Model the fold of this input.
Amino acid sequence: MTKILVAYFSASAAKITEKVAERLAETIGADLFEIVPEVPYTAADLRWTNPIARCNKEKFGRKDVPSAGKVENFEEYDLVILGFPIWYGCAPNVVSTFIKGYDTAGKKIAAFATSGGSKIGKTAEKLKSYVSESAMVLEAKLFEKDVTPNALQNWVNGLLRQN
Done:
């Protein structure tokens, strides 16, 4: 049986990514882990329309953003699904820093994102630079906040069929 981890970062007060991650983990019987920055974001930090907001400084400065906590027994997971709000067509730096902190050799890595209007972009392609060369980076999918359990299950079934 495939052991699956859903690791997510949720930024907004509405916790849209968190709700989708929880629904996904419950639907597929996966373990759930929240990626939390060591220094939590304030509302001002996330105001992407402000060019000097923390989220913009981190993204454009390509800064690592350490996360608090670690996934115990990460080596036991076969499939790791990363969830996050899409920032500039890719994962927020805290997610990239998080996944770089683990040995992903031989694992399948997939991602889902939520968005207020951005597209998924080249999210999956960009994740490849943060994982082991022997990891298989699968598709990235954009989900609306009201995605159904059936749609989530169908997506994961497709991921599991990929070799």
Remarks:
- The mean pLDDT is 90.
- The chain has one domain: 4-161.
- The first strand starts at residue 4 and ends at 8.
- The CA atoms of residues 90 and 123 lie 5 Å apart.
